[in-house]
Amino acid sequence: MKILVLNGPNLNLLGTREPEIYGYETLADIEAEMNACASQLGPDIQIDFRQTNSEAELITWIGDTRGKYDGIIINPAALTHTSLGVADALKAVADAVPAVEVHLSNTHRREEIRHKSLTASACIGQLMGFQGFGYILALRALVCELSE
Ligand code: DQA
Questions:
Q1: Residues in the chain with pLDDT < 70?
Q2: Does the residue 29 lie in any domain?
Q3: pTM (2 decimals)?
Q4: Residue of 105, 112, 133, 137 with the most ligand 1 atoms within 8 Å of its CB, for mutation
Q5: Residue 22 annotated among the catalytic residues of the structure
Q6: Ligand 1: centre distance to CA 44 (Å)
Q7: Could you say which of 81, 103, 108, 115 is catalytic?
């Protein structure tokens, strides 16, 4: 089972970026925890973990998943609220590569502009508000879905 974990703009700054909102874990910490969780869940679960600040790159990566990955875990970051292109890319592959959306913060408790997700309707589910632990919850949920 191959799972692509995608992180959007500014998530490379985790650890020092507004830690009162996003926590002190770095993206490398989250990647290590996901890999540890994946090996507990099963020997055949592989994680490919990426981050980009480019909307175009994110769209290209999503569009390229068909036939290569079984599922996507995505934190589109600010593109969640703005990018029809990312939403369309997720919808374009959703029949073959289901996605779970993750947010470190509970965006509904923040500024109104963050309440709307354009990408959530392209995903099978969404997890938010548990900082880095949300990625682990998303992994467990996606592996369950894919194992059914
Ligand atoms: C975020 C929430 C977004 O509103 C914000 O732009 C981010 C991170 C989160 O993980 O809480 O960059 O996706």
A1: none
A2: yes
A3: 0.98
A4: 105
A5: yes
A6: 30
A7: 103
pLDDT at 148: 86
124 occurs within a structural domain = no
Structural domain count of the chain: 1
CATH of the domain at 60: 3.40.50.9100
Q: Is residue 73 in some structural domain?
A: yes
**Residues 6 or more apart whose Cβ sits within 8 Å of residue 38:** 3, 45, 46, 47, 139
The answer to the question of residue 6 being in a domain is: yes
The best mutation among 80, 116, 123, 133 to test binding of ligand 1, ranked by most ligand atoms within 8 Å of the C-beta, falls on 80
Residue 103: domain span: 2-114+129-147
- The DSSP secondary structure of 56-89, one letter per residue, reads HHHHHHHHT-TTT-SEEEEE-GGGGGT-HHHHHH
